[in-house]
Amino acid sequence: MSALAGFAKFVALDGLVSKGDPAQTATNITESADLFRFGVACLFVVIALDIVVAWGLYRVFSPAGKNLSMLTAAFRLVYTAVFMVAIGQLLRGLRLLGDDGYLAVLGADQLHALALLEVTAFNDLWMAGLGLFGLHLILIGYLAYRSGYVPRLLGALLVVAGLGYVIDGFGVMLSEGAWTDVASYTFIGEFLLALWLVIWGSRLAISESQHHEDPVATTR
User: Fold this and answer.
1) What 8-state DSSP symbol labels residue 68?
2) pTM score, two decimals?
3) 3-state DSSP helix/strand/coil percent for the chain, to nearest 5?
4) Helices (DSSP H) in 22-103: which residue ranges?
5) pLDDT tens digit string along 83-141?
6) Contact assessment for residue 147 and residue 193, using Cβ atoms and an 8 Å cutoff
7) CA 196 to CA 192: how far, in whole Å?
8) Where is the chain membrane-spanning (predicted)?
Protein backbone atom coordinates (compact mmCIF):
# COMPACT_ATOMS: atom_id res chain seq x y z
CA MET A 1 0.00 0.00 0.00
CA SER A 2 2.82 2.40 0.86
CA ALA A 3 4.56 1.67 -2.43
CA LEU A 4 1.39 2.20 -4.48
CA ALA A 5 0.36 5.36 -2.65
CA GLY A 6 3.91 6.74 -2.72
CA PHE A 7 4.25 6.19 -6.46
CA ALA A 8 0.83 7.68 -7.16
CA LYS A 9 1.28 10.73 -4.94
CA PHE A 10 4.91 11.69 -5.52
CA VAL A 11 5.51 10.48 -9.08
CA ALA A 12 2.24 10.31 -11.01
CA LEU A 13 0.58 13.31 -9.34
CA ASP A 14 3.00 15.70 -7.61
CA GLY A 15 5.62 14.99 -10.26
CA LEU A 16 3.33 16.47 -12.91
CA VAL A 17 2.14 19.50 -10.96
CA SER A 18 3.91 22.84 -11.30
CA LYS A 19 2.75 24.89 -8.32
CA GLY A 20 1.26 28.22 -9.32
CA ASP A 21 1.51 27.43 -13.03
CA PRO A 22 -1.79 26.01 -14.37
CA ALA A 23 -0.64 26.07 -18.01
CA GLN A 24 2.52 24.04 -17.35
CA THR A 25 0.60 21.64 -15.11
CA ALA A 26 -1.98 21.11 -17.84
CA THR A 27 0.78 20.45 -20.36
CA ASN A 28 2.50 17.96 -18.07
CA ILE A 29 -0.71 16.05 -17.36
CA THR A 30 -1.80 16.03 -21.00
CA GLU A 31 1.59 14.77 -22.21
CA SER A 32 1.73 12.13 -19.45
CA ALA A 33 -1.96 11.24 -19.29
CA ASP A 34 -1.25 7.50 -19.09
CA LEU A 35 1.04 8.00 -16.09
CA PHE A 36 -1.57 10.20 -14.43
CA ARG A 37 -4.32 7.63 -15.02
CA PHE A 38 -2.10 4.83 -13.74
CA GLY A 39 -1.47 6.84 -10.58
CA VAL A 40 -5.22 7.23 -10.07
CA ALA A 41 -5.68 3.49 -10.61
CA CYS A 42 -3.02 2.79 -7.97
CA LEU A 43 -4.97 4.90 -5.49
CA PHE A 44 -8.12 2.88 -6.21
CA VAL A 45 -6.16 -0.29 -5.41
CA VAL A 46 -5.03 1.31 -2.15
CA ILE A 47 -8.68 1.96 -1.26
CA ALA A 48 -9.55 -1.70 -1.85
CA LEU A 49 -6.59 -2.78 0.31
CA ASP A 50 -7.62 -0.30 3.02
CA ILE A 51 -10.94 -2.12 3.32
CA VAL A 52 -9.14 -5.46 3.65
CA VAL A 53 -6.79 -4.01 6.26
CA ALA A 54 -9.72 -2.59 8.25
CA TRP A 55 -11.19 -6.09 8.40
CA GLY A 56 -7.82 -7.66 9.26
CA LEU A 57 -7.07 -5.25 12.09
CA TYR A 58 -10.55 -5.80 13.49
CA ARG A 59 -9.78 -9.52 13.64
CA VAL A 60 -6.41 -8.91 15.31
CA PHE A 61 -7.64 -6.48 17.97
CA SER A 62 -11.20 -7.63 18.66
CA PRO A 63 -9.97 -9.85 21.55
CA ALA A 64 -8.81 -6.65 23.27
CA GLY A 65 -12.25 -5.03 22.85
CA LYS A 66 -14.72 -6.11 20.19
CA ASN A 67 -16.92 -2.99 20.18
CA LEU A 68 -13.96 -0.60 20.22
CA SER A 69 -12.25 -2.60 17.49
CA MET A 70 -15.42 -2.32 15.40
CA LEU A 71 -15.46 1.46 15.92
CA THR A 72 -11.81 1.57 14.90
CA ALA A 73 -12.59 -0.25 11.65
CA ALA A 74 -15.50 2.15 11.03
CA PHE A 75 -13.18 5.17 11.24
CA ARG A 76 -10.91 3.60 8.63
CA LEU A 77 -13.81 2.77 6.33
CA VAL A 78 -15.15 6.33 6.53
CA TYR A 79 -11.64 7.56 5.74
CA THR A 80 -11.59 5.36 2.62
CA ALA A 81 -14.92 6.89 1.56
CA VAL A 82 -13.44 10.39 1.86
CA PHE A 83 -10.40 9.17 -0.07
CA MET A 84 -12.67 7.93 -2.85
CA VAL A 85 -14.32 11.35 -3.11
CA ALA A 86 -10.88 12.95 -3.25
CA ILE A 87 -9.84 10.70 -6.14
CA GLY A 88 -12.94 11.86 -7.99
CA GLN A 89 -11.40 15.34 -8.05
CA LEU A 90 -8.45 13.96 -10.02
CA LEU A 91 -10.71 12.37 -12.59
CA ARG A 92 -12.60 15.64 -12.99
CA GLY A 93 -9.33 17.47 -13.50
CA LEU A 94 -8.33 15.01 -16.20
CA ARG A 95 -11.74 15.40 -17.84
CA LEU A 96 -11.26 19.17 -17.98
CA LEU A 97 -8.10 18.67 -20.01
CA GLY A 98 -9.79 16.29 -22.45
CA ASP A 99 -11.29 17.07 -25.83
CA ASP A 100 -14.97 16.93 -24.90
CA GLY A 101 -16.81 19.35 -27.19
CA TYR A 102 -18.90 21.01 -24.48
CA LEU A 103 -15.71 22.30 -22.83
CA ALA A 104 -15.15 24.65 -25.79
CA VAL A 105 -17.31 27.25 -24.04
CA LEU A 106 -14.43 27.76 -21.59
CA GLY A 107 -11.11 29.29 -22.53
CA ALA A 108 -7.85 27.38 -22.28
CA ASP A 109 -6.69 29.46 -19.31
CA GLN A 110 -9.91 28.75 -17.45
CA LEU A 111 -9.68 25.02 -18.11
CA HIS A 112 -6.07 24.92 -16.95
CA ALA A 113 -6.87 26.82 -13.77
CA LEU A 114 -9.86 24.59 -13.01
CA ALA A 115 -7.79 21.44 -13.60
CA LEU A 116 -5.11 22.62 -11.16
CA LEU A 117 -7.85 23.50 -8.69
CA GLU A 118 -9.19 19.93 -8.87
CA VAL A 119 -5.73 18.50 -8.14
CA THR A 120 -5.37 20.89 -5.20
CA ALA A 121 -8.83 19.86 -3.95
CA PHE A 122 -7.70 16.22 -4.04
CA ASN A 123 -4.75 17.02 -1.78
CA ASP A 124 -6.91 19.03 0.63
CA LEU A 125 -9.62 16.35 0.86
CA TRP A 126 -7.07 13.59 1.34
CA MET A 127 -5.29 15.50 4.10
CA ALA A 128 -8.58 16.26 5.83
CA GLY A 129 -9.56 12.59 5.55
CA LEU A 130 -6.27 11.60 7.13
CA GLY A 131 -7.61 13.16 10.33
CA LEU A 132 -10.12 10.28 10.44
CA PHE A 133 -7.30 7.85 9.69
CA GLY A 134 -5.44 9.37 12.63
CA LEU A 135 -8.37 8.67 14.95
CA HIS A 136 -8.30 5.10 13.68
CA LEU A 137 -4.62 4.81 14.59
CA ILE A 138 -5.16 6.34 18.04
CA LEU A 139 -7.80 3.71 18.79
CA ILE A 140 -5.58 0.94 17.39
CA GLY A 141 -2.81 2.19 19.66
CA TYR A 142 -5.09 2.11 22.67
CA LEU A 143 -6.24 -1.43 21.84
CA ALA A 144 -2.63 -2.51 21.31
CA TYR A 145 -1.59 -0.99 24.64
CA ARG A 146 -4.30 -2.78 26.60
CA SER A 147 -4.23 -6.06 24.64
CA GLY A 148 -1.46 -7.84 26.50
CA TYR A 149 -0.19 -9.46 23.29
CA VAL A 150 1.19 -6.36 21.55
CA PRO A 151 4.19 -4.47 22.99
CA ARG A 152 2.94 -1.46 24.92
CA LEU A 153 5.62 0.74 23.39
CA LEU A 154 4.18 -0.03 19.96
CA GLY A 155 0.74 0.98 21.21
CA ALA A 156 2.14 4.31 22.45
CA LEU A 157 3.92 4.94 19.13
CA LEU A 158 0.68 4.25 17.24
CA VAL A 159 -1.10 6.89 19.32
CA VAL A 160 1.68 9.37 18.47
CA ALA A 161 1.37 8.49 14.77
CA GLY A 162 -2.39 8.98 14.94
CA LEU A 163 -2.02 12.36 16.62
CA GLY A 164 0.27 13.43 13.76
CA TYR A 165 -2.44 12.67 11.20
CA VAL A 166 -5.13 14.38 13.29
CA ILE A 167 -2.97 17.51 13.57
CA ASP A 168 -2.41 17.46 9.80
CA GLY A 169 -6.13 17.09 9.14
CA PHE A 170 -7.03 20.08 11.26
CA GLY A 171 -3.99 21.98 9.99
CA VAL A 172 -5.18 21.78 6.39
CA MET A 173 -8.66 22.95 7.39
CA LEU A 174 -7.57 25.79 9.67
CA SER A 175 -4.35 27.02 8.04
CA GLU A 176 -4.62 29.87 5.56
CA GLY A 177 -1.45 28.89 3.72
CA ALA A 178 0.51 25.75 2.94
CA TRP A 179 0.73 23.17 5.72
CA THR A 180 3.83 21.15 6.61
CA ASP A 181 3.00 17.49 7.27
CA VAL A 182 3.48 16.51 10.90
CA ALA A 183 2.78 12.84 10.14
CA SER A 184 6.01 12.72 8.12
CA TYR A 185 7.81 12.75 11.48
CA THR A 186 5.43 10.63 13.58
CA PHE A 187 4.69 7.68 11.27
CA ILE A 188 7.16 5.24 12.86
CA GLY A 189 4.45 3.49 14.90
CA GLU A 190 2.46 2.74 11.76
CA PHE A 191 5.51 1.19 10.11
CA LEU A 192 6.39 -0.86 13.20
CA LEU A 193 2.83 -2.20 13.44
CA ALA A 194 3.08 -3.52 9.87
CA LEU A 195 6.47 -5.08 10.68
CA TRP A 196 5.14 -6.62 13.90
CA LEU A 197 2.15 -8.12 12.08
CA VAL A 198 4.41 -9.66 9.43
CA ILE A 199 6.58 -11.28 12.11
CA TRP A 200 3.94 -12.23 14.70
CA GLY A 201 0.70 -12.31 12.70
CA SER A 202 0.92 -16.02 11.88
CA ARG A 203 1.31 -16.86 15.57
CA LEU A 204 -1.81 -14.89 16.38
CA ALA A 205 -3.76 -16.73 13.67
CA ILE A 206 -2.56 -20.14 14.91
CA SER A 207 -3.41 -19.30 18.50
CA GLU A 208 -6.89 -18.13 17.54
CA SER A 209 -7.62 -21.29 15.55
CA GLN A 210 -6.43 -23.53 18.35
CA HIS A 211 -7.98 -21.67 21.28
CA HIS A 212 -11.24 -19.97 20.30
CA GLU A 213 -12.30 -19.14 23.82
CA ASP A 214 -9.35 -17.02 24.96
CA PRO A 215 -7.17 -15.81 22.05
CA VAL A 216 -5.69 -13.02 24.17
CA ALA A 217 -4.26 -15.33 26.78
CA THR A 218 -2.74 -17.70 24.23
CA THR A 219 -0.74 -14.96 22.52
CA ARG A 220 0.88 -13.46 25.61
Assistant:
1) H
2) 0.82
3) 85, 0, 15
4) 22-31, 33-61, 66-96
5) 999 999 999 888 888 766 556 656 778 888 888 889 888 988 998 899 999 999 999 99
6) no
7) 6
8) 35-58, 70-91, 125-145, 152-170, 182-200
